[in-house]
Amino acid sequence: MAGTTFAAIDIGSYNVTMEIFEITKKNGLKSLNVVRKRLELGKDTYTRKMVSPEVLDELTLILLDYSRIMKEYGVTAYRACAKTAVREARNYLLVREHIRNKTGILLEILSNSEQRFLSYKSIASRGEEFEKIIAKGTAIIDVSGGSIQISLFDKDTLITAQNLRLGLLSISTRLAAVENQTTHPERIIDQFIRKDILNFKRMHLKDRNIDTIILVGSYFTNLVFQNRLDMNKIETREEYYRWYEKIIRMSPHDAAAFLGVGTEVANAIIPMAVLYRRLIEVLGVDNIWLPGIQLTDGIAYDYALKAKIIRTQHDFDKDILMAAKHIAKRYAGNKPHTEKIMEIADAIFKAVRRESVLGPRDRLLLKVACQLNDCGKYISLVNVAECSYNIIISTEIIGLSDNERKIIANTVKYNTVPFQFYGENSDGLTEYDFLRVAQLTAILRLANSMDQSYLQKITDIRTLKKDDRLTIDVTVKEDFTLERGLFEANIEFFEDMFDIKPELKVRRVEG
After folding, report:
1. CA distance 304 to 317
2. Where are the beta strands (DSSP E) in 110-266?
3. What gap in Å lies between CA 248 and CA 364, rounded to an integer?
4. Is the pLDDT assigned to residue 38 strictly greater than 50?
C-alpha cells in the first residue's frame, strides 16, 4: 500500500532535528531517518532577544541541507516548527521570511500551548500504553530551553496544564552571576526553582496522588536519565536518586568523562538534574517514564490524524474542553449554566454553520467560550467583559493557538458589551478571524439569553433552518417571559451576522 513520506522539522534551542516518516493506514507511523544538528539558537534569544545574522546563516545552511535530504527521500509533505528560541526573538518575522526566501521552507512559529500539545500528541501516539498510564494520576513534564510545562491527568482526564519559566537556558542565564560564587551550585539552583514548583503544588496538585511522570524533554533530559539512544525506558525514583547523588559530587571534568560529553554540556546537566529531583520530590512519584519520543513524533502524528491517514481513540478536543472547564472552576464559574448554554449554542451552531464562515474548529472554540463566558465575575461583577477577556488572554489553554485564544476572548467579551467592528478594535486579528468572532458572538448571545436566569428552564431544544429563517423550538419547565424578551433583544445582531432571522417557539410543560 502506497504511503505518504512526511518530514517533521523541529527547531529548538540547542538542536535542529528532522525526522522522515512513512505513514500508511496499515502500519501507521514508521521512522525512516533522523537527522540532528547542533545549533545554539537559544543563547542569542535569551541574552540579546534576537537571532543574530551569524546564527541565522547557520540555520539557513542546515535547512538547505534538510531540503536536499527531503528530495532524496521523495518527501510529499512536511511541517517545519520553531519553538521558544525563535518565538521569543524580537526579529522572529524576519527570521521566518529569511528562511522562506533562502530555502523555500515555510516556517511555523508555534505558540507555547501549540508546542506542548504536539509534545502531548507525540506521547499519545503510543496508543494503549499511553491510555493505560494516564488512567492513574499522571503528570506529563515537557522541558525546553526556556520553560517547563506540567500537565496533570487524573482518571484519564486532563486537569490542568501550567507553564513555568524553569527551562535550562532561563535558569542558567538568571543564575550565571551567582553560580561561580559557591562551591555548591546545586543548592543555589534548588533554592531558585523551589518556590515556583511548590506554588504549583499548592495551587494545582492539592490532594491528588501522582503515580507516574512522563518526561518529554531535550537532549539534556536523555543525558540526565542515561537514555541517549532515545529508547522507551521506565526508571524508579530510587534509581534516579542514586544517579543524582553520584553526579552531584563530581567535578565538571569528571562528570564530562562519566557522561561521555564535553565539559560545557556537563555543566548544563546540573541545573537539569536539580530540576528533575525537585519535581520528583514535590510530586511524590514512584516511576518516571521516558517514552523515547521527540516533538517530531507529535508533528507527524498530528499530520496523519488531520490527513485522516490514521485514527485515534483518544479525544484531543475533550482535553481542550476539560482544560477550559477547570479554568472555569478556578474562577467559580456556574457549571449548570455553562452546560446549558453550551448545549443551546451547539444546536444553533450546527443549524447555521453551512451559511457562515465558521468551520469545524470553530465549534470547539464556541464550546470553550461557553465554558469561560462569565469567568470575569470572579474579579468584578461590574467589569465582567474586560475581566473575562484578560483572564482568557492571560491563561494558556493547551492545544489552542494564541490566535484562537484571542478569538475566544473577544467572543466572551462581546457577549455582554456593544460589539466593535473590525477597524474599531481589531485586536491583532485578521478581517476573516474578526468575522468569525462576530458570528460566534451572535450565537453565544442568543444562547446566553435563553438561560439568563441561570435556572436551566429549557428541557429540550430543536432547531430548523429553512431559507432565511431559523426556528428554535424549546420545551421549558417554567415561565419563559424573561428569556423570550432577552432573546428578542438579540435577534437583530444575529440577523446582521448571518442574514438569517431566528424565531423562538416555546412549548410549556407542567413541572
Report:
1. 16
2. 138-143, 148-154, 157-164, 212-216, 233-236
3. 47
4. yes
d(CA 231, CA 400): 30
3-state secondary structure of 160: strand
Tell me what percent of the residues of the chain surpass a pLDDT of 70: 96
**Whether the predicted pLDDT of 230 surpasses 70:** no
Cα–Cα distance, 373 to 337 (Å, whole number): 10
Per-residue pLDDT of 245-272, as tens digits, reads: 988 888 878 888 888 888 777 777 788 8
Angle of CA points 416, 418, 422, to nearest 5°: 120
- Could you give the 3-state DSSP secondary structure of residue 135? coil
Q: Which residues pair with 33 in a beta bridge?
A: 20
The count of residues in the chain is 511
Instruction: Report residue 371 as a C-alpha cell.
Output: 465554558
User: Do the Cβ atoms of 289 and 136 come closer than 8 Å?
Assistant: no
CA distance 380 to 388: 9
Q: Give the CA distances from residue 88 to residues 115, 291, 467, in Å, rounded to whole numbers and listed in that order.
A: 13, 28, 49
Residue 182 is given by DSSP the state -
Question: CA-CA distance, 399 to 298, in Å (whole number)?
Answer: 12
What type of residue sits at position 301? Y
Secondary-structure breakdown of the chain: helix, strand, coil percentages, each rounded to the nearest 5: 50, 20, 30
Q: Which of 147, 153, 115, 112 is nearest to 289 (CA)?
A: 153
Q: Which residues of 456-486 are buried (b: 16+ CB within 10 A; e: fewer)?
A: bbbeebebebeeeebebebebebebeebbeb
Q: Report which secondary-structure segment, H or E, holds 210.
A: none
CB 439 within 8 A of CB 456: no
Task: Give the pLDDT confidence of 77-110 residue by residue, as tens digits.
Answer: 999 999 888 998 999 999 999 999 999 999 999 9
Closest CA to 337 of 419, 456, 236, 246: 456
Helix (H) or strand (E) holding 440: helix 431-449
Residue 72 in this model has a pLDDT that exceeds 50: yes
231-246 residue pLDDT tens: 678 889 999 899 889 8
What is the tens place of the pLDDT at every residue in 141-157? 888 777 888 888 877 77
Looking at residue 366, what is its pLDDT? Answer: 98
Whole-model pTM: value is 0.82
Beta bridge partners of 23: 4, 29
Please give the Cα distance from 413 to 375 (Å, whole number): 11
